[in-house]
Input
Amino acid sequence: MKLEVKKREVLGSKVKKLRREGILPAVIFSKGKESLSIELVLKDFIKAFSKAGETEIIDINVVGEKTPRPVLIKELQYDPVLESPIHVGFQEVDLTETVKVSVPVTYTGEETHPLIKNGKAILIVLFDEVEIEALPRDIPHQIEVSIEGLKEIEDVLTVVELEKYIDTTKVTLLVEDKEAVIAKLDYAEMLEVEEEEPMDVDDIEVTEQKDKEEEGEEGKEGEKKTEKAKEEKKDKEDK
Output
């Protein structure tokens, strides 16, 4: 995968003009080097990104440089309204050193699984990506996991299963708990939770009135006890 780019002189808020012309502002980050501001054709980037994603090496040819730069797409910003890329950050990598990246995990066989087809079960995905370490050229585009091993509801797939679908001599899974569940079959029908019926406005008013009446009765009872105590005290004094 290759991309042709140019060094970018336009910076700051002026990049809006570039975007209007179909040009995507970007930057290349390099370990031990200064970052390089670049620009490229938006359509070319979208085409490359659809194939490479964030896991495949892209060779960037910068106009004026003799050697292509191997990079990974690391920071992609989108327009919140149009949902199109407005800026991208490329990380230049050393092809002789391993890198740590997150790789998508996809699950196959869901469409043909008997329990899912008949509506009795659903697939619950707990891991849709996993962190790995590998040389840049050995990074898998994604890890495809078959769910045909899930025979019964509540059967699970664990991290160990992922190792069946990668070259463990080149790729290392960076997950400490190998028994962590990555996906499972669960019941399609969830138990209905009984909801409390909302109290009617009239009921609220009746309840409030009742509380007030009870408070009033308690107040009257207290007054009676106070009057009685005063009378008893007076009788004692008279005697």
Observations:
- Residues 2-92 form a domain with the Ribosomal Protein L25; Chain P fold (CATH 2.40.240.10).
- The chain has two domains: 2-92, 99-187.
